[in-house]
Amino acid sequence: MGPFAPSVRAVAVLSLSVLIGCAEPGGERPAAEPASVPPQVAPPSTVDAPSAGPLVVFLGDSLTAGLGVDEDDSFPARLGRRLASAGRPVRVVNAGVSGDTTAGGRARVAWLLRQQPDVVVVELGANDGLRGLALEETEDNLRAILEAVAESGARVLLVGMKLPPNYGPDYTRGFEQIFPRLAEELDIPLVPFLLDGVAGDPELNQADGIHPTADGHSIMAANVLPYLAQLLDRGTGRPAPA
Questions:
Q1: Which end of the chain is more exposed for a tag (fewer CB within 10 A), N or C?
Q2: Which residues are marked as active site?
Q3: How far apart are CA 148 and CA 153, in angstroms?
Q4: pLDDT digit string (tens) for 57-109?
Q5: φ, ψ for residue 156 (rounded to 5)?
Q6: Which phi and psi angles does 170 have, rounded to 5°?
Q7: Which residues have CB under 8 Å from 179's CB, separation 6+?
Q8: Which residues contact 168 (CB under 8 A, 6 or more apart)?
Q9: Helices in the chain by DSSP H: which ranges?
């Protein structure tokens, strides 16, 4: 069984045009992303941030933003609390933007890096795949984001994604292979699949069949936690905040 169970596949496909305004594979592609941060995008939110500790920025789409759940229930906020309860406080900045693509993330990554994060968690690509965008463009945008983070002196954690099976085996397989290929090429850690244990489970997803519930975000946080903790253990070259 693929990442999305057959019982929610129809709901997922139906909801794409409503939630994401996507084009089906082979259809008209969305307009190009702006070259700078669009003025309507709100500044990233800082959730339950302590005054000290590494700064962790989550660059992502609606899965990171926590569409449909309280901000405190999003998986970045949950990760911050879990690390704090383990005696490893971090400052969490949720830079998730619903509907964002890899092109959008590429356009705003320099703006986010001005905050001098210690770690950037990159969760992008799902909307590219759901819109049927060219795989080469998605991979090129992700590579540019990851390289920009590395050049800034921050450490980066890439989050893998999968697609519903209705996009065809070639496109689906090609999409999934982008993430491990980039992780190996750039020698960076990879969370294999953010929605592992969540995708396809009606009890863990909202009515659209795509966006997780609060309980789903709890599992997502558990999926990311060991990789993020290991990356934090490695440290960065940045000085501790004053």
A1: C
A2: 62, 208, 211
A3: 9
A4: 999 999 999 999 999 999 999 999 999 999 999 999 999 999 999 999 999 99
A5: -130, 140
A6: -70, -50
A7: 125, 142, 158, 159, 160, 161, 190, 192
A8: 25
A9: 6-19, 62-65, 75-85, 102-113, 126-130, 135-152, 169-186, 214-234
